[in-house]
Amino acid sequence: MRAITALLMLLLLGLTEADVQNIVNENEIRLEKQNIVTENEISSLGQNIVTGSDISPEKQSIVTDSEISPDIQHMEVQRNTSEFQGDSWGSCQPDMCNLLMKIGAMEARMTASESKVDTLHTMNQGLALQLRNTETRLTTTEIELRNTETRLSTSEKQVEELKENAVKEQVVFSAGFGFDGNYGHFNTEITLVYKKVFINIGNGYNKITGIFTAPVRGVYHFTFYHHHLTINRCQASLNKNGMVISSIACEKNYGMASNGITVQLEVGDQVYVRLWVDSLLFDNHSHFSNFNGILLFTQ
Fold first, then answer.
1. Model confidence over 45-95: pLDDT tens digits?
2. Distance between CA 216 and CA 237 in Å, rounded?
3. Do residues 222 and 238 make contact, with C-beta atoms less than 8 angstroms apart?
């Protein structure tokens, strides 16, 4: 058992397989030398030890071959083992020192590496905290940006609505009759169509029908002017949705008449001029007869 333990110690010390085999061979040689101790040698040894007349035959019988042999073998094994261990440890001490130095260097490197790992871990924790703070600020900025985009979109819609309302609130038209000479007389009332359009902001006036339709709710002011050069009368009226709201009349042979009125209109209300029965009007390139309207303000 001690031999096996010594062999394991040698393997741990880094000896080569050849060195271990040589040591094993030397150990086997020593063990063979132990077996050389024969019965004759033991007997001779017993005779040299047990001599003289003072030892009785009974005491001689005590020292037998079977008892002397194990004692001597045990002493030999102990001596061989001591020699084997002494030789082995004495020859391997420098290697042990080198091994211990290598282990010490490895431990120092390991300690330095662990220190670096701890430092990197601390740095990573700091960077992770900075990253979380940056993500929080970025999220806040994204929320603010979305809110700004929402407000901008709302503002743009409001601007468009204001533009539309501004366009709607600008309503004005003026149109001449656009006929060269006398127009009339008829045996029934007719709606006059003023075909020569000078301005029509808001597109409230229709030059095909001669009717103005209110695009927005508000207060409007309307005027109309007629001229005639015959013995027939010149009479006309301003109508709102089929009801007379203003009228004009001219003297015979030569005359000029006009009138105006301010009214409140709802969206879709219609205003137009009607020529009375047996009446006429005169117009030429000088535009004596015309129809006008303007939005004063919305409501």
1. 444 444 444 444 444 444 444 444 455 444 444 444 444 444 444 445 677
2. 24
3. yes
Q: How far apart are CA 72 and CA 78, in angstroms?
A: 10
Using the CB atoms, write b or e for 5-35: b if 16+ within 10 Å. ebbeebeebebeeebeeebeeebeebeeeee
SS3 per residue for the chain: CHHHHHHHHHHHCCCCHHHHHHHHHHHHHHHHHHHCCCHHHHHHHHHHHCCCCCCCHHHHHHCCHHHHHHHHHHHHHHHHHHHHHHHHHHHHHHHHHHHHHHHHHHHHHHHHHHHHHHHHHHHHHHHHHHHHHHHHHHHHHHHHHHHHHHHHHHHHHHHHHHHHHHHHHCCEEEEECCCCEEEECCCCCEECCCCEEEEEECCCEECCCCEEECCCCEEEEEEEEEEECCCCEEEEEEEECCEEEEEEEECCCCEEEEEEEEEEECCCCEEEEEECCCEEEEECCCCCCEEEEEEEEEC
User: Is the sign of the CA dihedral 200, 206, 210, 212 positive or negative?
Assistant: negative
User: Which domains does the chain show, CATH number per domain?
Assistant: 2-118 (no CATH), 170-298 (2.60.120.40)
Instruction: Over range 104-128, report the average pLDDT.
Output: 88
The closest alpha carbon to 228, from 236, 216, 220, belongs to 236
Burial class (CB in 10 A: 0-12, 13-18, 19+), 69: middle
Cβ contact 175:208 at 8 Å: no
Asked if pLDDT for residue 208 goes beyond 50, the answer is yes
Residues recorded for the chain: 299
Give CA–CA dist 195/173, Å, rounded: 12
Round to whole Å and give the CA distance between 260 and 251. Answer: 19
